[in-house]
Amino acid sequence: MVAIRGARERAREELTHEIKEEARRQLAVEGAQKLSLRAVARELGMASSALYRYFPSRDDLLTALIIDAYNALGSQAEQTDSAVAPRSDTRARWFAVSSTVRAWAKAHPHEYALLYGTPVPGYSAPEQTVAPAARVPLLLVGLLQDTVGRFAIPAPVRPLRGPLADQLADLATRVTPGLPPALLSRGLSAWAQLFGMVSFELFGHFVGSADPADAFFAHTVEEIADFLGLPETP
């Protein structure tokens, strides 16, 4: 019975993988908005009713693809960060992680677009996507936490005030203990700028200006490192 159960589980895993691979092929051709369970089933030679046993709805399949993409990106970024030595070289770690995000996006443009492109009408990401989505920003937070008490943090040009000060103080308490809210604010800005640059490049917004974007990307990543107060690599 154990052997039979194991064979069934392997078969289910293999078919689940095939379903998601076909869905990714459809993303590349049709885009997320036109993803169809019926079309996936047809391409795999399955009855639609059989596919529904694996993914009850299009949104369930989208969620699986989104989680896989976030985890793939997060895993790549974490592996890159962990390979940088010495660990105290936070500037080199920032550059390595930033370059990895860009490289992954260029190698997987349709999955990147699923995560950071135009939202799919009618789809609302469930809570189970939150932890995978947080892997890269939390990696950046960890990098910034490694600078606290070791390097001089640039004084904020514009102090945090009002609701934003309260919001970031609460976030720092819950998620980034020991990280000054002003530095957390800079980290959020850096995260947004990094993915903004990648999105602009991937979606063709640098054509006619900073295209190819290699030099602009490297220059801006260095500027962001200055903004975060990361010391120059010895």
TrEMBL record:
Superkingdom is: Bacteria
Keyword tags: DNA-binding, Transcription, Transcription regulation
DNA-binding: is it a keyword of this entry? yes
List the PROSITE patterns.
Answer: HTH_TETR_2
Q: HTH tetR-type domain location, by residue?
A: 13-73
Report the Pfam families cross-referenced here: TetR_C_33, TetR_N
Q: Which SUPFAM superfamilies match?
A: Homeodomain-like, Tetracyclin repressor-like, C-terminal domain
Q: Write down the DNA-binding region ranges.
A: 36-55
List the InterPro entries: Homeodomain-like_sf, HTH-type_TetR-like_transc_reg, HTH_TetR, MT1864/Rv1816-like_C, Tet_transcr_reg_TetR-rel_C_sf
- What is the protein name stated in its UniProt record? TetR/AcrR family transcriptional regulator
Please name the source species: Streptacidiphilus alkalitolerans
